[in-house]
């Protein structure tokens, strides 16, 4: 990214607007859109804005340390880049550029099963890479992907548990969205994937090409026994992404997972699902310290990171903003996004009277309607 361009990007909303100006309509909608009427997508942001932090004063904040540990490894921020599919849609280097930016920022990068760049190239960047897994209709293929990620040097496995099939995303349906020829799921096929095919005969207008692909590929039979099998299979830290219910958080701890991600998939699965930040306190209480808790869906500022910590999270995942940065300036654009979040978080930390991440977790919050 050119320096003069970076100077015009003062917050993530600026990056979003810049990305919207350069992306084709169908790709912009694929990144921005949610499922159904997008009630949950919009509610994620509104719910975060209802959380107010009670700052402390008369504390020495001449040095504010933003570093922490995530899944037992050091990170410069309580933040990881979330798994997002098909990033070469928005930039020729795709996930490779984003992984380099995350490495430079000192935060983990999560490679998706639907990454358009193979995990081996992403771990070769040298940063901390987590591998996100969708459970496939052939469980053996899922475990093969885990083995591949382990062999590549991934540091964690993140199983997404809220996608038995893709939520009905009306923007993609209306745009008849399909992947261009140069973008494919690098972990699922040697050549172009089934996602390039149009919706099944007789379903015109009822589904996007990606709906058809995921319905044919993902297993709706993912259960707790699958989690147990995966836990037995890998020695890497195991993360479950897509937990909103306290009961599921307790079950996750019983299964020996290392972390759960409180997430409604950015409002892209069940429309009408609870905003993630509203589910966070109950999940934290239910886990009873048995695993780390990460917050996903709607995080757009360093203040949001502070809010999540004050509500008991270990850190957050950031998804769409990384895509905006990638669209605007490739690696430099993602670096700009992460730099902005780092600066905003340090500012929020100090202004709340916290010299480090541990102090942020002791803050009190108040919710306003």
Keywords:
369 residues, alpha/beta, TIM Barrel, eight-stranded parallel β-sheet, two-stranded antiparallel ribbon, 15 helices, 13% strand, FMN, Aldolase_TIM, oxidoreductase, FMN_hydac_DH_AS, Alpha-hydroxy acid oxidase
Set out the fold topology.
Blueprint: H1 3-6, H2 12-22, H3 25-32, H4 39-49, E1 51-54, E2 68-70, E3 73-75, E4 79-81, H5 95-105, E5 109-111, H6 119-123, E6 129-133, H7 139-152, E7 156-160, H8 170-175, H9 209-217, H10 224-233, E8 238-243, H11 246-254, E9 259-262, H12 276-287, E10 292-295, H13 302-310, E11 315-318, H14 320-351, H15 357-360, E12 364-367
Parallel strand pairs: 4-11, 5-6, 6-7, 7-8, 8-9, 9-10, 10-11
Antiparallel strand pairs: 1-12, 2-3
Overview of this protein structure:
The chain is of the alpha/beta class and 369 residues long. It is built from 15 helices and twelve strands. The protein has one domain (3-367): Aldolase class I (TIM Barrel), CATH 3.20.20.70. The strands form three sheets. The protein has an eight-stranded parallel sheet. Helix 2 packs antiparallel against helix 14 and helix 5 runs parallel beside helix 14 (320-351). It starts with a helix and ends with a strand. Mean pLDDT is 94; it is low at 190-205.
């Amino acid at each position: 990214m050119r320096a003069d361009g970076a100077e015009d990007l003062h917050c993530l909303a600026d990056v979003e607007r810049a990305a919207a100006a350069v992306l084709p309509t169908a790709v912009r909608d694929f990144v921005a859109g949610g499922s159904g009427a997008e009630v949950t997508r919009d509610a994620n942001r509104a719910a975060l804005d209802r959380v107010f932090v009670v700052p402390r004063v008369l504390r020495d904040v001449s040095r504010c340390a933003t570093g922490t540990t995530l899944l037992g490894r050091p990170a410069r921020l309580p933040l990881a880049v979330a798994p997002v599919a098909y990033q070469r849609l928005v930039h020729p280097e795709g996930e490779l550029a984003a992984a380099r930016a995350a490495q430079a920022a000192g935060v983990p990068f999560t490679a998706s099963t639907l990454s358009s760049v193979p995990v081996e190239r992403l771990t070769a960047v040298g940063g901390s890479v987590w591998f996100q897994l969708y459970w496939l209709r052939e469980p053996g293929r899922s475990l093969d992907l885990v083995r591949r990620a382990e062999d590549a040097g991934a540091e964690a496995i993140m199983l997404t548990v809220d996608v038995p099939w893709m939520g009905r995303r009306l923007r993609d349906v209306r745009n008849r969205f399909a992947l261009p020829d140069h973008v494919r799921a690098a972990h699922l096929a040697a050549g172009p994937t089934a996602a390039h095919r149009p919706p099944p005969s007789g379903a015109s207008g009822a589904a996007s090409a990606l709906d058809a692909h995921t319905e044919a590929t993902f297993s709706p039979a993912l259960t707790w026994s699958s989690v147990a099998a995966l836990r037995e299979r890998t020695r890497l830290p195991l993360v479950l992404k897509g937990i909103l219910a306290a009961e599921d958080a307790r079950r996750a701890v019983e299964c020996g997972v290392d972390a759960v991600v409180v997430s409604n998939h950015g409002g892209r699965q069940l429309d009408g699902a609870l905003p993630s930040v509203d589910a966070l306190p109950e999940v934290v209480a239910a886990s009873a310290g048995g695993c780390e808790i990460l917050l996903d869906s709607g995080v757009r500022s360093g203040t949001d990171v502070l809010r999540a910590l004050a509500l008991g999270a270990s850190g957050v995942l950031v998804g769409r903003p990384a895509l905006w940065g990638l669209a605007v300036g490739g690696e430099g654009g993602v670096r700009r996004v992460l730099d902005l979040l780092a600066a905003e978080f340090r500012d929020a930390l100090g202004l709340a009277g916290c010299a480090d991440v541990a102090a942020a977790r002791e803050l009190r919050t108040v919710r306003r309607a």
